[in-house]
Please model this.
Amino acid sequence: MRDVAVVGVGLTKFGERWGDSFREMCVEAGVKAIDDAGMDGDDIQEMFVGNMSGGRFVLQEHIGALIADYSGLATNHIPATRTEAACASGGLAFRQAVNCIASGAQDIVIAAGVEKMTDVSGGETTDALAGAADREWEGMYGVTFPSLYAMMARDYMNRYGMTREELAQVAVKNHYNGARNPIAQYQKEITIDTVLNSTLVADPLRLMDCSPVTDGAAAVILCSLDRAKEFTDCPVKVLASTQASDTISLHDRRDISTLDATVAAANRAFDIAKIERKDVDLVEVHDCFTIAEICAIEDMGFCKKGEAGKLTAEGYTALDGKLPVNTSGGLKACGHPVGATGIKQVCEVVTQLRGEAGKRQVDGAEIGMTHNVGGTGATVVTSIFRRV
Amino acid sequence: MSVPRFWRKQTNRYNLIGTKCETCGTYYFPPRSLCPKCRREGKIVDYKFKGTGKIVTFSVVRTASDKFDLQTPFVVAIIELDEGTRLTAPVICSDINEVYIGMRVKSTFRKISADGDSGIIVYGTKFIRE
Ligand SMILES: CC(C)(COP(=O)(O)OP(=O)(O)OC[C@H]1O[C@@H](n2cnc3c(N)ncnc32)[C@H](O)[C@@H]1OP(=O)(O)O)[C@@H](O)C(=O)NCCC(=O)NCCS
Ligand SMILES: [Zn+2]
Model:
């Protein structure tokens, strides 16, 4: 297998993008990434687009061809493929692009992700997202995504004694980081009281424990490492990109508040990358709900089960902590356009490793990691990056 | 959910009929036609669950999809049946504050949702305190 590098990143502003369409956002991110790589559109040999539910949110399928067309690459007839694994759709697009180059099939590939969630009502959004779980045996009973993660949170708090305040600190930290990210949906700091006084969505989770509903797109350009210097002075090498599956339903898991797919994907990634947990300088994890960040830190092996709440409260995962987590603001503050999130995480890590993250820069960051979850943990993609 | 899609598993939903793998002795609800442990070696038969068990974890849904909006707030739970199988279902109670982890529950036949005033009504299994 050949070594692969990221040579370009592009992001749209995340938020309610009332004036912009699905395709416009994705093309905007793609053009920014191509610009950033200093290459020509004609250099792109293949395209992967992560998208969860164009069919439900904008009544559009056949996303690969649509984006190839509107980015002016359909007339080059490049292969364009949509990838889908609910909220991990972007992560899948990235991993497919990595494998496409590593295998020698192509030299230069674009991986994008896009979601337009605000064109439908809140109730419809909630129902569409429920399709990431088992529609027939979970969603049919009115179970929502927040309530599935809430059941994880209740199980976790009951077993490990994490306090409501410790859990709230995840949101406080991520809003602090989001306030330093110009593309974030919410760029305002909050306090623990903001979280504790926000409305209950699914007990024990409140509004401020939840990622929001977001429009946005992200794109990255990947290239074989041996050609990377043609396009950039600071390529970021992909040390590993792994994926794992687990049962579709939360009730069928071995352990309700452990994501075994995270454990499996992370273990594989560290094996392939040949680095240790302590070598990682920052990580973007899938905090679709505050509890998800707590589980992610533990299940990736950065600390023991039951310890992440206390570590978060102590500032271990803060911007100036030992292991900064979600410097972008995470899904919570930066926003969560589901299909775009996995690519946005890669953009953030690459920006950090290049030293271009401005007010939220982690000093001297050399190795970064991403963690993208589909559903309640039925799909997980993890990737590890190093500045070269 | 469409009518054919619901009707296909209607008897299972109404009567809590799942499956059992006679090869390894594992019970499945929702029903599975392939035992993930034994795969092609598994011998799958229908099994009617007793319908009793306990709450493993739960939440109260306060923001729902349109179809369930009128029912909020309602309790959903992961329930471990006495046969050892876990499933997700709503729990009916007069006071949502009385539900707790470990609470004993039993199944009951109830309306799950309705598509407006004249649309199809979906029935199925919910749980109440034993
Ligand atoms: C939590 C949720 C139900 C809130 O939706 P809602 O009740 O319709 O909230 P509203 O849109 O009415 O927003 C109310 C206010 O809170 C703000 N807000 C909404 N969600 C927010 C969030 N997650 N974080 C911070 N602020 C939020 C809004 O901007 C709005 O502020 P304003 O009054 O100043 O304009 C919705 O964001 C949601 O479903 N999130 C989960 C998404 C999800 O499941 N993703 C997949 C995960 S795998
Ligand atoms: Zn079996």
